[in-house]
Amino acid sequence: MKRYLLCLLCALLLFCATLYIVLQRMSLNVDAVNIANQPAAGDVQPSQDADPAETSSEATPEPVPEPEYFTLSAIGDCTLAPRPNSADFVNKVNGDFSYPFANTVQYFENDEFTIANLECTFSDRNLTYDYTVAMFYFIAGSDYANILTQGGVDFVTTANNHSYDFFQVGVDETCASLEAVGLPYGIEDQAQIVTSKSGIKFGVYTAYNDFYPDESKAVQAVKQLQSEGADYIICMFHWGKDELVYTPRQQQIDLAHACVDAGADLVYGSHAHCLQPIEEYNDGVILYGMGNWSFGGSDRPRDPDTAIVQLTLRRDADGSISNDGITVIPCRVSSKEPDPNNAQKYAYNDYKPTPYEEGTAEYERVISKLNGSYEGGDISVDYSSWYQRG
Fold first, then answer.
1. How many whole angstroms separate alpha carbon 310 and alpha carbon 98?
2. DSSP SS3 for 147
3. What is the pTM of this model?
4. Taking Cα atoms as reference points, which of 155, 158, 223 lies closest to residue 195?
């Protein structure tokens, strides 16, 4: 009996020892799990009330800013003065400086930048004409500069073959007239930055050089404007000695390409008094000839066609600006139509450019001149029979 009780006691002690060991091991395992689940030093524990979306390991990406778009408009020669021995332009305007742009101002009022070629002198003085410069001259009072600002023009080049019709004093008077109405302008071989209302720094280089702008100077000007922080660079050239021809010379093409290769975004050409093709070259746009716009030089221009060319500019989030499309609005230089059977005897020009109706033969003719498919021949004109010297 004693031996039985002793065995029972030993068995009980062995059971208790075994139970104690098992419980100890379970305690160690629990502690190990708790330690594994504890945050490392420096980690921040989420609040019990935190939103699961807010505690996600992936951060919400920042929205990508949308690009901005702006419109740059280009038009042709603005000869805002009467031809010699005529008061027709002055009589048509009749003191209303909104008159010349009355049918087109809607295209320029809300765009970012409008450029044009100014081919006349503004002065209130009785200036002496330089007969050695050209056969014709164009001069109007200083207040005629208001035509440009009321029409929505933002910049004009004065670097052309009529700049010095009245010697240096004529240049000075014209510049003073433009400054009086607050209109930026360019003179011969000038590179400058003009900041638009939306803060775009337009770098503009203007040159004439007797119809042959110097390529090395132009390329140097483009690089200068780049170094000065221009966002968008424009070269405005009065070039190509021939008038009323519908294709540019190779020298013009080479110059335009060199400017774009150097960093110009737009090359603007004038002088031919008719439209010439638009070329998209690399990342630039070349307007070889913008023709006439409000042209007081003749009451019956041989070529009635003109156009508004509008470029869409894209500004990306990094501030860079690039060309993003071209829109053309074909126009006539006058609100009146020329008589096709008697064009040179009918004084149709009222100096008020007017858009052509889309789909008309005239509309399509303008498009063909700008895309290079125009099949009409160049026009030869002997101006000596139209005007008198002095």
1. 21
2. helix
3. 0.83
4. 155
Question: Residue 247: which of 380, 381, 372, 376 has the closest Cα?
Answer: 372
Could you tell me whether strands 321-332 and 305-315 are parallel, antiparallel, or unpaired per DSSP bridges?
A: antiparallel
The full DSSP string for 9-46 is: HHHHHHHHHHHHHHHHHHHHHHHHHHHHHSPPTTPPPP
Q: What Cα–Cα distance (Å) separates residue 238 from each residue in 41, 186, 205, 276, 376?
A: 74, 12, 11, 13, 23
Asked if 190 and 174 touch (Cβ cutoff 8 Å), the reply is no
Distance CA 332, CA 293 (A): 8
Closest CA to 76 of 373, 370, 386, 374: 370
Calculate the alpha carbon distances from 201 to 139, 229, 233 in Å: 32, 7, 9
- The CB density around residue 274, as the number of other CB atoms within 10 Å, is 25
Are 78 and 293 in contact by the 8 Å Cβ rule? The answer is yes
Give the whole-angstrom CA distance, residue 286 versus residue 281.
7
- Cβ(76)–Cβ(270) under 8 Å? yes
Q: For residue 287, give both structure tokens.
A: 């307007």
Query: Residue 8: which H helix or E strand, with range?
Result: helix 2-37
* CB-side neighbour CA atoms (13 Å) of 373: 6
Whole-angstrom distance, CA of residue 84 vs CA of residue 166 = 13
Q: What phi and psi, each to the nearest 5 degrees, are found at residue 69? A: -125, 140
Residue 362: its H or E element: helix 361-371
Contact present, 325 and 310 (Cβ < 8 Å): no
Token pair listed for 297: 């030089």
Residue 70 pLDDT more than 90?
Answer: yes
**pLDDT digit string (tens) for 328-367?**
999 999 999 998 777 567 899 999 999 999 999 999 999 9
pLDDT at position 12, please? 52
What are the residues whose beta carbons fall under 8 Å from the beta carbon of 305, sequence distance 6 or more? 274, 275, 291, 330, 331, 332, 333, 362, 365, 366, 369
Residue type at position 225:
L
Q: CA dist 133 to 126, 145, 210, 223, Å?
A: 18, 23, 11, 32
Nearest to 231 by CA among 274, 265, 254: 265
Report the chain's C-alpha Rg in angstroms. Answer: 37
